[in-house]
Amino acid sequence: MQSLLAMILLGASLLALPSLSSSDSLFAVPAILGLGITTAVLCSGRGMLALALGALGSLAYVTLASRSPELGGALFVLGAHGARVIRGRTAALRGALALASLTGGAVAAILVARYAAHDLAVMTAATVIASLFAGASFVLPSDDALSFGLRGLAQESDEPGRSLLLRAVQLRRKIGDSDSDLLPAHSTRQLEGAWTVLLTAARARATAQRSTAIALDRRIARHVDALERIYSAAEERSAHVAGMDNAALDAARLEHERLASEISALQELAPATDEKEFTGVTVSVSEPKREEIPVESQAEVIAQPVSTSDSAHN
Predict the structure, then answer these.
(1) φ and ψ at residue 98, rounded to 5 degrees
(2) Which of 20, 131, 163, 181 is most exposed, with minimal Cβ within 10 Å?
(3) Nearest to residue 202, comparing CAs of 173, 176, 228, 163?
(4) 251 CB neighbour count, 10 Å cutoff
């Protein structure tokens, strides 16, 4: 839902930015900055990095709008997605995120500039398509701020802390990539607090002395184990509920079993002779046996002379 709102705001911002940048109003530049920061929060989440990059994207648009609105739009969209780009899971993904943001922003800026002067229906359609291009990088995965923090602390830690924190990162990614809500909203908020506590413990572990680090490793291990158990239980519960709710599948299975039992009963009642198909059910049909005359007897009958009475009759 947040991604959808971010895409809509990106398209609307690119539609409004040319008018704001050409305006002589004192509120034009603050409005552009506000749009950049708001879109950055929706696209990349709250945080100083997202705010700073969103503001930089807005300033880049103000600087380049008069000379190259396409490049200005590309940098505006890149600023909105900037924090997500930095939090990319691999170097290749970070490059793909940056390229998708720049390309999508440039195409979106061209679309809204080309059709801004048309009637309302055409302009609305162009804005919707521009929103899709501006949000193209959402199809690529990226870590959230907490996962990014845990991943950075894992790289700075030695064993066993590194392995524990990487386990937490993998669990966090698995939850984030899931399309279904495993837990109610209030439980999710409580667990976010538990994740924050884990991040705090990981930061303390990164700067702790050896003896203190051992104690913190045990605490982190218990914390990660507890989180894994909670989400595993939530997944099992979700799978159980999904199986109970699938009434159509249960009805189809029962109908199949009923038909199979009826067909089996019909096959047992039918005589075991020649089988013929009738409306999908195999039944047996018995035919009367015909008495066959041996070939030798047929030859004798044919060789017999025709009697006089038979000839006269004929």
Answers:
(1) -65, -45
(2) 181
(3) 163
(4) 10
Share of the chain above pLDDT 90, in %: 33
Count of CB atoms situated within 10 Å of the CB of 74: 26
Is residue 147 within 8 Å of residue 169, measured between CB atoms?
yes
Residue located via tokens 């002067």:
117
Per-residue pLDDT at 156: 85
| Beta carbons of 276 and 283 less than 8 angstroms apart | yes
Question: Which pLDDT score is estimated for 104?
Answer: 93
3-state secondary structure (DSSP) of residue 276: strand
DSSP 49-99: HHHHHHHHHHHHHHHHTTT-HHHHHHHHHHHHHHHHHHT-SSHHHHHHHHH
Half-sphere exposure of 150 (CA within 13 A, CB side): 26
- Which alpha helices (H) appear in 207-246, and where do they start and end? 210-245
The whole-angstrom separation of Cα 277 and Cα 283 is 7
Is the pLDDT reported for residue 297 higher than 50? Answer: no
Helix, strand, or coil (residue 161): helix
Task: Give the H/E segment covering residue 8.
Answer: helix 2-21
Amino acid at 167: R
pLDDT at residue 314 is higher than 90: no
Q: Is the pLDDT of residue 276 over 70?
A: no
Sequence-separated (6 or more) residues with CB below 8 Å from residue 151: 143, 165, 166, 169
Which contiguous run of DSSP H or E holds residue 277? strand 275-278
Q: Do 238 and 182 contact (CB within 8 A), yes or no?
A: yes
The first and second tokens of residue 177, run together, are: 């990539």
In the structure encoding, which two tokens stand for residue 68, read together? 């190259």
Distance CA 222, CA 167 (A): 12
User: pLDDT of 204-256, one tens digit each?
Assistant: 888 888 888 888 888 999 989 988 888 888 777 766 655 555 555 566 667 66
SS3 10: helix
How remote is the C-alpha of 157 from its chain's centroid? 33
